[in-house]
Design goal:
Hypothetical protein Ta1206 fold; globular; alpha+beta
């Protein structure tokens, strides 16, 4: 199953995607400046490509991602003021 949702933050919008896999879901929320990814995706690769990336774990829905806290973030995300433990709702405004 595939789910697509638009998330509005202030006057900007982000795209949220959820793909149901065999046992869990692959979830990504994409803004103009960066993205939030679930535990399926690799932070080392995000750093390699100098992406502004945030990783959350233990989530299976877009709603759970929105209530989560940052588990890890790329070097570029840190430069933008994003940090481990930060609520995702705050990150949305930074990457939108």
């Amino acid at each position: 199953m595939f789910v697509y949702r638009r998330i509005k933050v202030r006057e900007k919008e982000l795209d949220a995607f959820r793909i149901k896999l065999a046992s869990k879901s692959l979830i990504v929320i994409v803004g103009n400046k960066g993205y939030i990814m679930c535990g399926y995706l690799d932070m080392a690769v995000a750093d390699k490509f100098k992406d502004v990336a945030v990783r959350v774990t233990g989530v299976d829905t877009i709603s759970q991602v929105l209530r989560a806290k940052v588990e890890s973030c790329s070097k570029q995300a840190c430069k933008m003021g994003i940090y481990k433990g930060q609520p995702v709702k705050e990150v949305l405004g930074i990457i939108a």
